[in-house]
Design goal:
The chain is α+β, with helices and mostly antiparallel strands and about 150 residues long. Helices cover about 35% and strands about 15% of the residues. It has helices at about 20-30, 85-90, 100-115, 120-125, 135-149; strands spanning about 1-5, 10-15, 45-50, 55, 70. The structure holds FE2/S2 (inorganic) cluster (2 copies). One FE2/S2 (inorganic) cluster (FES) binds near residues 95, 97, 101, 132 and 133.
């Protein structure tokens, strides 16, 4: 068993300490907005926040998240009000198939918290998520728009 705090709720989950956090989030907590892509920390589809930092949850054991504040895409909108990144995503019509986008948004939200006005170089360094649909240009535009919001 592990006690995890996800999106402000504390849950007792039936998982081993070395289970990847992604599986606890999707299979145990039932929060399927966080996606499985590669399973080896390469694509970013599984990105969530632990204490405000973006992490690739397929490569983080549950034991590393105990006692910390986990936020998934379902918890990004505070009180149902979309985060400025989510608003910019809608306004710039970023997603294509959508599969990578929740991880992309979580990575961007963490970047903007750390660096409210990122340059293109900052974006290139921080947002290494893979999008098979090639939405990179729209992602960049939406990041700059969110930074101005
Ligand atoms: S599924 Fe975690 S980085 Fe690809
Ligand atoms: S929108 Fe399809 S993989 Fe990124």
């Amino acid at each position: 068993m592990a006690r995890l705090t996800i999106n402000g709720k504390t849950l007792e989950l039936d998982v081993e300490p070395d289970t990847p956090l992604l599986w606890a989030i999707r299979e145990q907590a039932g929060l399927t907005g966080t996606k499985y892509g590669c399973g080896i920390a390469q694509c970013g589809a599984c990105t969530v926040h632990i204490d405000g930092e973006a992490v690739r949850s397929c490569a983080v054991p549950v034991s590393a998240a105990v006692g910390k504040k986990i936020t998934t895409i379902e918890g990004l909108a505070a009180g149902g009000v979309p985060d400025k990144v989510q608003k910019a995503w809608v306004e710039h019509d970023v997603p294509q198939c959508g599969y990578c986008q929740t991880g992309m948004i979580m990575a961007v939200a963490a970047l903007l918290r750390r660096k409210p006005k990122p340059t293109d170089a900052d974006i290139d360094a921080a947002i290494t998520n893979i999008c098979r649909c090639g939405t990179y240009q729209q992602v960049r535009e939406a990041i700059h728009a969110a930074a101005k919001a």
